[in-house]
Design a protein that fits this description.
Blueprint lengths: L1 H11 L24 H5 L2 E7 L5 E9 L8 E15 L5 E9 L8 H4 L3 H17 L2 E2 L2 E2 L2 E2 H11 L7 H21 L3 E3 L5 E4 L4 H16 L2
Antiparallel strand pairs: 1-2, 2-3, 3-4, 5-6, 7-9, 8-9
Helix pairs in contact: 4-5, 4-6, 4-7
């Protein structure tokens, strides 16, 4: 297999990326199964480690042949993302998950690392608004207005207060907190005039393609 990969690399002048699994025992979780010849032939090796909370993911460099090993990278699996137009046999909304930029969790302060219900609602409503009311310019996703996102957030946010005025104030404050939190954590970015919102983080480009696909699909329904 090592020789076959080397042959492909020589033939096409390309990088070869192999996806492999780790050993079974706890002691073998940091290395790939099989012959040590694999690691000897690699220029770079990284492991993907899902933490016990099933949300935090760590990318750890195990080998870097011709450079210094980079610091571990933290990602987060964001669940419960609605897929616009997708419903199961019972008519229930189909959801998926996306990987977003994360932070190193603090084991002694796990509660603080968990995303609040409001923040989860903020991400969910932002994605819904972007998928249904986003702007398209020159064939590219061009953001969703803050007002469209705000309307979606207000629509979903639970109104526990009987007093409509107080309930409206609570929604306004909650949206302001969520917007600032998402900006701080780089889940979103805003236009220079502050009127439009775009996805942030490492996967922003992928998110924009998902939103663009949804907007085009909605247009022709």
């Amino acid at each position: 297999m090592v020789d076959a990969c080397a042959g492909l690399q020589m033939e096409y002048g390309s990088t070869i990326i192999l996806v492999h699994h780790t050993g079974v025992s706890d002691d073998a979780q940091h290395r790939a199964r099989g012959s040590s010849a694999w690691k000897g032939a690699l220029d770079m090796e990284a492991s993907v480690v899902m933490k016990s909370n099933k949300e935090d993911i760590q990318i750890i460099c195990r080998k870097m042949k011709d450079a210094e090993e980079p610091e571990p990278l933290w990602l987060r699996l964001q669940k419960g993302i609605d897929l616009p137009g997708w419903y199961d046999a019972d008519g229930e909304q189909v959801t998926s998950a996306v990987i977003v930029k994360g932070e190193e969790p603090c084991e002694t302060k796990q509660d603080k690392n968990k995303m609040s219900d409001s923040d989860q609602l903020g991400i969910k409503t932002f994605r819904t608004a972007a998928s249904n009311f986003g702007q398209v310019k020159d064939g590219r996703f061009d953001g969703v207005s803050i007002e469209a996102w705000r309307r979606e957030f207000y629509r979903i946010y639970p109104a526990d207060e009987e007093d409509e005025t107080k309930a409206a104030q609570n929604k306004k404050k909650a949206f302001q907190r969520v917007r600032l939190s998402m900006l701080k954590n780089e889940y979103i970015r805003v236009s220079e005039d502050g009127k439009f919102v775009f996805p942030g983080g490492y996967l922003a480009g992928l998110d924009e393609q998902i939103f663009l696909s949804s907007l085009r699909s909605n247009k022709y329904e």
